[in-house]
Amino acid sequence: MAIIRQRRFIEPALDDQTSDIQQIYGIATDKHITTCPFDVKGYIESQGIKVISEDMGSEISGYIEFRINHWVIAVNRYQNPRRQRFTLAHEYAHFLYDRETIQRDGKIVDVLLFRSDESNEIEKRANQFAGELLMPTTDFLNAVENGMKDFQQLADKFNVSVAAIRYRAFKLKLINAY
Amino acid sequence: MGKYYYFPILKTRDAELKGIDRLDSEVKDCILPIFELTRSRRTKNNNEGDIWKRIDQIKDAVGVRPFALDVTQLPTLSNAQTAQLLSSNDNFSSWVNFIREVKGRGLNVIPTIHFDPDDLNSSKEEIVNLLKLSEFLLFRVDVRDSDVIDILKKLERVCDFSRLIVLLDAGFQSLEETPSGNFKTIYDEAINELNLSKKRPKAIICALSTFPAYVLGNGYGREDAHDKFLIGENITNKALGKEIFHGDYAAIHPNIQEGGGGWVPRIDFTNEDNFYYYRYRREEGGYVEAAKKIIASPHYCEIDNIRTWADEEIKLASRGIPNGRNPGHWIAVRVNLFVTKQFIRLRKSSGFSL
After folding, report:
1. Interface pTM (ipTM) of the complex?
2. Could you say which of B78, B80, B112 has the minimum Cβ distance to residue A2?
3. Which fold would CATH assign to domain A16-135?
């Protein structure tokens, strides 16, 4: 449509932009956002970021993009919803940590998550944040100590993929190999 | 230059572009497509969804024929590039420079005016610059906007209407709410305003779509396998009279969402008054069964004096050798058939030259 009413750039709620998981959970609780399992889409949208699902190549999980005056996080609509949740958390980490890079380059596109070598520090940090956000250390260890040792059970509890559970268990040194 | 009779609005997705690309040249010569530029599909090797891929596809589809170009504002079909093209910074210079480059690549583009009613100076400068690149400009406005009259009055202050094609767009209108399919009154106020302007536009196009996101529903199909529903676009067009040129969304729902989960194979065809759909699950025969049923339908008849790719595709599928087994292919077929039929219907009207 030809009519353009320019939206001024609104920086997502600055006070809320924390990467501290405990603080994030506190903010989510204040905003009546579900925390168990964590409503990652609701939380990101509450930060003023647009979340969309998009038809993209199967090798792409998602991306974060700055569009002139607003932020967009997209997930591959054909991937499993649980995998999409991890992608959302991963992309949100890019927003928290890599915003300047994205504003300079326009975007970060994630081709693969859970890379075995994790040679890229930016991706490694984003994966770590996503794991902690969706499966906080204390909650994860408590669940395991309380007898929940089946990957599928844990995946159901945190509403993530089994691959994400394995990744998290590996990072928490509960298993030796991922 | 020949005359133009029909003005379909099309997003630059693969399906729409394929449907246009396969049109007979007789049809291509007499329609003026209004392309709404969308990003291309993001892949590993095209991770920004580059819009220049779409420009190349437009060139392949229309050649040197004129077409109008707008930019989508649907978030799922946008990217950083399309957002940049909509920026009002520096008098919409991103848009003007883009149009200059498109022209430079040999495309006969009629640009849309990006109009900011709250910043007339920017728009005025943009219009001056675009008019250096194109003899005519398209102005597309949503007639459902409560400010539409105010917008047209403001436009008149910064623009010579004689070099303007005005597209009054009503977007999607539901047959559930208006079963008659006549939506003429939506346009009345805006048309009156344009008739009052000092210099009437080169042409006024009224566009809408009654094509639904799902064919089943109130006002639409009642039967799961096959049924029909009205083409509100044509009913409204006839009610608007001969002075108004006809636009629509080429039998695509205006707010279409990409892809999705499960889908039932479906083929559609159209005559002057109705859309017909035939949908059969894979285990019921899928596209082949749908095509067979269409060929057998008393309402379907092949176009005999214009080569029509869509008819050929339906015929092939009815023989058990469909060229496509995905919705995108059959959307292209629907676009191709609908546009051809609209051309046949509208070529009897007066049309206009550029």
Report:
1. 0.84
2. B112
3. Arc Repressor Mutant, subunit A (1.10.10)
